[in-house]
Amino acid sequence: MKEMIxxxxxxxxxxxxxxxxxxxxxMQKHPLNxxxxxxxNLNFSxxxxx
Length: 50
Description:
about 50 residues; mainly alpha; two-stranded antiparallel ribbon; about 10% strand
């Protein structure tokens, strides 16, 4: 019983992390143009691109 609950939480956590990573890369490709206060994007490395 305990092992099954651990496995369910592990699978849910992995799915959450994969969703966050894919959403991050999607937002890098398709930024929200009307919602930004500045015209610059912050890259993953921390460099500012125009």
